[in-house]
């Protein structure tokens, strides 16, 4: 039985909900968050996830509005934990997929032939402002953090910044419910992922300079706990100085391999 979604924000006409444990606790898949934004009865799902999350998220959504009121499936990038359930969402709702134009012609591989026809809103690298109900969602460039075509989403009503794989931590769906307000003890759960999955410090600094201009109540990543209060500025400072991706790669990482790989399947680490 899944936990109730976390209500990150609610007023009479607007709500932001976070689902943290739709993937079975013992599954081999990484914990992931899915987000539902509702404005004046119209909805958007941010990073709907893979097939593992579909049923529970769909059931969770129809408690707030009927499926035909879902306007958008919004994908930060095209990884399987972001959008592998696309075929089922396009079948069960009338929503359009909003995704970087970099991935526009790749996502049809997630669906049956023809399913994506007239259902994709490709976003150019500069991002833009998307109408949602009577409000708007800001689509911000976050390329190479970590995918080549990558966006984050800012909701000016709740002042939540949804950051996909940036700011994620490796934990379980229960711990992911409680926002982190002090970054220092949290860094150990974030560092390995960011050093390997984020592309470079240059891109982090460009992103931080943009993000500091926003009035942010909460940073909501796609894995692990949200970041709020003093931890937001601490997070920006941490990213400013973090070396990652190509910064930490050298010729040692590009040697012809000598070690045998075990032919026996392994459990994920
Ligand atoms: Fe990803
Ligand atoms: Fe992810």
From TrEMBL:
InterPro entries: Metallo-B-lactamas (IPR001279), ODP_dom (IPR045761), RibonucZ/Hydroxyglut_hydro (IPR036866). This is FprA family A-type flavoprotein. Signal peptide: none annotated. Residues 31-223 form the Metallo-beta-lactamase domain. It comes from Comamonas piscis.
């Amino acid at each position: 039985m899944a936990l109730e979604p976390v209500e990150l924000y609610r007023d009479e006409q607007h709500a932001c909900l976070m689902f943290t444990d739709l993937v079975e606790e013992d599954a081999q898949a990484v914990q992931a968050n899915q987000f539902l934004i509702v404005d004046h009865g119209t909805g958007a799902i941010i990073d709907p996830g893979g097939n593992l999350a579909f049923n529970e998220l769909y059931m969770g959504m129809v408690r707030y509005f009927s499926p035909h009121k879902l306007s958008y499936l919004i994908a930060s990038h095209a990884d399987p934990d972001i959008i592998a359930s696309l075929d089922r969402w396009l079948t069960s709702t009338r929503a359009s997929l909003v995704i970087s134009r970099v991935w526009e012609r790749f996502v049809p591989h997630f669906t049956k032939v023809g399913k994506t026809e007239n259902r994709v809103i490709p976003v150019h690298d500069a991002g833009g402002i998307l109408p949602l109900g009577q409000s708007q969602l800001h689509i911000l460039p976050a390329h190479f953090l970590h995918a080549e075509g990558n966006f984050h989403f800012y909701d000016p009503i709740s002042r939540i910044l949804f950051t996909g794989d940036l700011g994620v931590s490796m934990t379980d769906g229960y711990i992911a419910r409680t926002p982190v307000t002090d970054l220092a003890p949290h860094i150990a759960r974030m560092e390995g992922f960011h050093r390997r999955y984020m592309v470079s410090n240059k891109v982090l600094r460009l992103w931080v300079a943009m993000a500091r201009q926003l009035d942010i109540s909460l940073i909501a990543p796609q894995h692990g706990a949200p970041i709020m209060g003093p931890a937001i500025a601490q997070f920006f400072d941490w990213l400013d100085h973090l070396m990652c991706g190509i910064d930490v790669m050298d010729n040692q990482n590009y040697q012809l391999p000598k070690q045998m790989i075990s032919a026996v399947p392994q459990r994920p680490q």
